[in-house]
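Quick review question:
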């Protein structure tokens, strides 16, 4: 049981950690018969997101529980000028590891992202989901998201678009502390195992 967790920026040394989470998530989806993430993770993209401060990890002490990437890039094939794409924060690669299954950690990560969107002055938290995974769409709706539309482009697997108001929270997952910088140990090295009191 993970009652308190920390959401913090991923360190540059943790690109492989996120890549392995992607691989684990893909295998679990495959077992369920869901054709999503059935290809190698893009380590260069993950490393770039870490360098730019977009990739976050969720930890409990020294234990990795999940990851989420957030940025302000609105995919122009999905989000149109009338959607006010600049007025949203976009969440990607939301992964909960098996060791945190059943804890509603995904809800906590979405709540964290929603509050981050609000702090950035955005009106919306947005996601795009795979068109072949309707269960994921239903999950987002259960988390307060509204289905905007589905963009069905033959060269894109994703395209089911959802949004919820920035700042809205469900409060049903573990309590979380959101950090925007890595805490360093006494030697000036990243302290990967730190979890502050909430």
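Suggested answer, residue by residue:
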């Amino acid at each position: 049981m993970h009652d308190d967790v920390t959401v913090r920026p991923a360190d540059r040394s943790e690109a492989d950690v996120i890549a392995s989470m992607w691989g684990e998530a893909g295998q679990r989806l495959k077992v369920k018969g869901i054709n999503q993430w059935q290809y190698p993770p893009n380590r260069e993209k993950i490393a770039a997101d870490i360098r730019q401060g977009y990739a976050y990890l969720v930890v409990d002490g020294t234990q990795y529980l999940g990851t989420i990437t957030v940025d302000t890039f609105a995919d122009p094939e999905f989000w149109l000028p009338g959607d006010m794409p600049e007025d949203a924060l976009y969440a990607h690669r939301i992964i909960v590891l098996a060791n945190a299954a059943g804890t509603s950690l995904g809800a906590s990560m979405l709540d964290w992202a929603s509050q981050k969107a609000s702090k950035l002055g955005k009106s919306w938290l947005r996601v795009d989901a795979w068109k072949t995974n309707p269960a994921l769409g239903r999950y987002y709706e259960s988390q307060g998201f509204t289905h905007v539309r589905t963009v069905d482009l033959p060269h894109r697997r994703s395209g089911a678009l959802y949004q919820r108001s920035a700042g809205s929270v469900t409060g049903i997952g573990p309590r979380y502390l959101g950090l925007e910088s890595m805490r360093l140990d006494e030697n000036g090295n990243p302290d990967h195992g730190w979890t502050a009191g909430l």
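Why it works: Confidence is low (pLDDT under 50) at residues 192-198. The CA atoms of residues 62 and 193 lie 4 Å apart.
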